[in-house]
Amino acid sequence: MSDEQPAITLYRLQACPFCERVVRTLDEQGLAYQSRFVEPMHSDRNVVKRVSGKRSVPAIVDDNTGVTMSESANIVEYLEHTYGEGA
Amino acid sequence: MPDFDVVSLPDHDAPAVGDTAPDFTRPLVNAEFWEDASLSDLTDDGPVLLVFHTMAGAFPATYVWNELRDRGVPEDVQTVGVSISSPYEHKSFLEARGVDARLFSDPAAGVAADYDLEHDLDGMAGVTEHRPAVFLLDEDRTVQYRWVADEWPDFPDYEGIADALDDL
């Protein structure tokens, strides 16, 4: 898969509704993404802190635009604004 | 006469030296997260030592990874494990053992089926795991070295692995 590694990486937590919301938006926009799962304990999420500055998920890294972002509402707005109709 | 039983394992048809190891995609767990990855992703980056082992918590998994760690194998070659343990268990295992390697999670043992290395556990109904085995693969996933357990339990031939790594 490294041949065509998607530009968008989604840091997520299994069964997290906020993460699912972002997934739904990614799917609606037809965007390929690579899921990276972390653990529920905040203290176990250093990788997310390192890339986004915060330990919260969901977080996305979009290599198309160089954007890194947390908070599902912000991410959904960003994705719709960047990739949605009229973008 | 020993008063314990070492069980002989049946014949198998696992990939042999010169064969191409089957590709597969499973969650690959590192110290911080897991994501789907293919074996071919790893071999594209260089040779891979592919280690099939028991689920985390069983002593053979502990022994095998302690030994690989102490011999510095993960520093010499990309070393990845495969077991039926969940990604959560794999992550805890890597931390507990202090192992700098990555582990594929294959809970339904589909990879074991692809490699003809399924091991149905006696006394754990419905649980099939991976028969202990080690494959050294080159960049084309061609098997350069193979060790497969003939007995249960059985442990890799670490000197054989070291020799195979020297021959790469």
UniProtKB/TrEMBL annotation, chain A:
Boundaries of every GST N-terminal domain copy: 6-87
Name of one Pfam family that matches: GST_N_3
Gene3D superfamilies linked to this entry: Glutaredoxin
Coiled-coil stretches noted in the UniProt entry, renumbered to this chain: none
Name of the molecule in the record: Glutaredoxin family protein
Organism of derivation: Haloferax chudinovii
Automatic annotation (TrEMBL), chain B:
Pfam families in the cross-refs: AhpC-TSA (PF00578)
Keyword set, alphabetical order: Redox-active center
Keyword RNA-binding: no
Residues spanning the membrane: none
UniProt name for this protein: Redoxin domain-containing protein
Entry-linked InterPro entries: AhpC/TSA, Thioredoxin-like_sf, Thioredoxin_domain, Tpx_Peroxidase_subfamily
Native organism: Haloferax chudinovii
Domain Thioredoxin, first and last residues per copy: 15-168
Matching SUPFAM superfamilies: Thioredoxin-like (SSF52833)
